[in-house]
Amino acid sequence: MVTIREHRRSDLPQVWTMATLPNVGDTADPLAPLPLPAAAEPPAAFPALACPERLPRGTFLVGDLDGHVVATGGLQDHGDDRAEVVFVRVHPATRRRGIGRRLMTALEQRAAALGYMRTVLNTATNQPEAVAFYRALGYHDVRTETRREWHWTVVHFEKPLLTDSHGTE
């Protein structure tokens, strides 16, 4: 069974490897090994993963399956009353088991506990599974962003958080 928990420093080599796995559409390889090989350093594209506990006013969680990192996700302050969800990954061999949904629920609960009213995140249209996943979780499109040099469009999402114990906004 997968446990969603705060990351530990000892998780970071697997977190770094997770961040570099091909994650786009059909390139998400379900045959990627468990456990993942440990990376020696954080990926250059994600320098904040060198020390995720320093995410501004946030947290960093992992999904742990028998001591192996199979999911990652963090929160950081996005100004006003918004927490930004960052670095969400689910190991390709463990997808479609509810792990991502459990991770997102835990992140949203942490955001609410930290006093945030909304969560925001973004993903790209070259990851249609991720776009569909976030919409299924109740995130709504806020805006899109394209650049000539990109081969995709970034979709920015937002979701209001429940604000009381009765499940009402």
What does this structure look like?
The protein has a single domain, classed as Aminopeptidase (3-Layer(aba) Sandwich), CATH 3.40.630.30. It is 20% helix and 30% strand. The chain has three helices and seven strands; from the N terminus they run βαβββαβαββ.
Task: Give the proportion of residues in helices.
Answer: 10-25%
| Shape estimate | globular
The radius of gyration over CA amounts to 16 Å
User: In total, how many beta strands?
Assistant: 7
Counted up, domains total 1
* Structure classification: alpha+beta
The CATH first-level class comes to Alpha Beta
Q: Might you state the CATH topology name?
A: Aminopeptidase
CATH superfamily: Gcn5-related N-acetyltransferase (GNAT)
Largest sheet: 7 strands, mixed
Q: Secondary-structure element order, as H and E?
A: EHEEEHEHEE
Strand adjacency order, main sheet: 1-2-3-4-5-7-6
Strand content: 25-35%
Count of helices? 3
Low-confidence stretches: 165-169
CATH architecture: 3-Layer(aba) Sandwich
Kindly report how far apart the N and C termini lie.
Answer: 32 Å
- Average pLDDT reading: 89
What is shown here, in short?
The protein is an alpha+beta fold. It has helices at 12-20, 99-113, 128-136; strands at residues 2-6, 59-65, 68-77, 82-90, 118-124, 140-145, 154-160.
